[in-house]
Amino acid sequence: MQGLWLYLHFPQLQLDSLLKQQTQEEAVIIVETSRMQVVQMSPAAYESGIRKHMNLGAAAALCEALQVLPYEEKSERDTLKEIAHHLYHITSDISFSGPSGLLIRAHTMLNLYQGLKHYWLALQHQLTALEFTYHYATGHTPLAAKLLALQGWHHISDDNEKITSALKKCALRLTDLDNKSVQKLNRIGIQHLGELMAIPLPDIAKRFSHDMADYLGRVMGLLPHPVSFYHPEPHFHHYKELLYEITDSQRLLTPITHLLDALERFLRLRDKLTTQICFTLHLRDAPELSVYVGAQQGEYRAAMWKNLVSLQLEKLSLTAPVTGMTLHAEKAYIRQPERPDLFTTKQGELSRLQLLSMLQAKVGENAVFSPRLGNDHRPEKHSLQVNSLNTPASAVSAYPLRPSFLLPHPVPLTEKVTIEHGPERIQTGWWDDAPAERDYFIARNHAGQWYWVFRTPQQQWYLHGIFS
Amino acid sequence: MNCAESTNIIMHISFDFLLYIHTVLSMNTLLASLHKKRLVWSAKQAPLMQPPSLATGFTELDDALSGGWPESGVVSINSLSGIGELRLLLPALALRNTQNKRLMIIITPPYPVNAEFLHEQGIDLTDVLIVNVNAHQSQLWCAEQCLKSGCCACVLMWPEKLQHHQVKRFQLAAQQGCSVLFTFHAQQHATAGLPVSLALSLEPASEGIKVNITKRIGSWPVPPFTLSYQSRWPKLTQSANATPDYHGFKEQLG
């Protein structure tokens, strides 16, 4: 069976992802730094006369309010990975081709979608949502599809003749052949691929080079072309380059929202939740800043995360401008359906864990806690504090009548009090470094306040608690 | 009847009618403006005035509050710390806590809360959350969020000073989340004039605690009365015939 491959070429990935962030039209160009040539430009820059492969100097002369950014292959590859990620739930076999191309094995998917037309519609729907400029074409071999896409053929077809005739019209400069061979072929009058395909492969190998014959054989499907496919990453990790440096922490919320939307898509597709996300803010001339945001109840919705993040940002002060940010979500687990109680009288907007995460985000994780009982007779070790609501209460029996408030450290008793009840002797802790030997009394001062006081063997009196 | 006479009558009628309409309209605008200023009470507001209540666990207090604590709203308590003011609330809160498993939030208590005390009152410690935050604004923020979240039964806080609009916000949040905010104040006049649902003033008493209901929406004033703690916490009462069990007499310390 003959294969069918689909190639998607994204000519301006870096520019498109930048332009998504801003609302007004601006002249932006992306310049390849080694040769100082324009490789990508915004529509506004195109209108002012800037064209591809133009020199930076010439471009700057054409437009005065020009924004120039260096071309970054890594950021394009990251964006491409993100696109592959979105397409992955439509089609299974995706392979990267260079920094700006995706190769998709189509013939294995046709049964599922009942034909090429529906398959392409599904893909196209997904691609339109992503708002990237792209060229597409199909071919019977990976390289043929690539050539046609670079040519901008924009046809989805499995008609052999149609593809071959289009392939024959492809200019040689679009092929993967090196410049020298292309020039050599041009010199002997071969301009298009069709003319080269007319020559038998052994002759090409003899006359030109083995590599050229190999390439041509792969284009025509005579030689095998192994492809390694993309596997989605198990964790969400996303970097976003900022168009402007941001110094006000409140203004970070807008780009963060974009990242959180991406996180929501990622988690929703997998039907997963995450309890902690980490923002790494890349600062100019300063070490990176990491912000951890936690949700006690696993969460995937961007709106919920946004609330928690905005609370964290209130506390954040930036030492240097932010140039980019990374969102990383490590642990994700399968979502459990919520089980609200049918008979509870009033269902609130928030669950208790959501409320807890919100409080923790606002006042800090250590400022919110739940009381627990410890297994010790010393009052200060009997009353504990834990940071999580889910810690089960230990089965320790309580002692009769204890004060409502316990002072963090006993203070010497300076007031005149009347003893009402007591003593209750607590003598324990001889095994560690804080032994206690105390006689506790319930006392009352003349204002009517009830105190919990104790006496040490040295006959010193201390105030330890207050009965409220 | 000639033609001129009938016209005259019609004119008379129409003039009276206009005067009537004018009066009605001005009455309406007057009424509307009075309504706006909340100076008019209409009978349809009655159900709002007496919200469902929560038994306090003390019969005298239930009677005085005609049922118990409000189901939702702001209760301000003027009291010296350490005279048994928390114990006044706890029977009701423990009951509520066991009934519907909602959270009890304690925001910045004056001293660390003793877990044993809560446990001893029958409160499930997994339903208690303590927030320690010093900034006054943050305290208010936390209280409002907890009140309106719907998963908290009550919020206890010790604010420095509350403004009129802040209490109004708390009232709305409490209604939304069906929760009660208890605010404790040491000064006697800290909450005067605030739109709280209920204001109590507590004083120490030898057999328990003296309660003075200073404000309660939709009710007549009740004279101050003393609640006895004798049955619940006999050790926190000074009954005349109780014999101290330490050396047989009360010892004066100082």
Automatic annotation (TrEMBL), chain A:
Entry annotated with the keyword Transmembrane: no
The entry's keywords: DNA damage
Residue ranges annotated for the UmuC domain, each copy included: 24-148
GO BP term, pick one: DNA repair
Keyword Iron: no
Residue stretches in coiled coil: none
Transmembrane segments: none
InterPro entries, per database record: DNA/RNA_pol_sf (IPR043502), Rev_trsase/Diguanyl_cyclase (IPR043128), SulA_CellDiv_inhibitor (IPR050356), UmuC (IPR001126)
Pfam families hit by this protein: IMS
Family to which this protein belongs: Belongs to the DNA polymerase type-Y family.
Protein name stated in the entry: DNA polymerase Y family protein
Native source organism of the sequence: Alteromonas sediminis
Lineage: Bacteria, Pseudomonadati, Pseudomonadota, Gammaproteobacteria, Alteromonadales
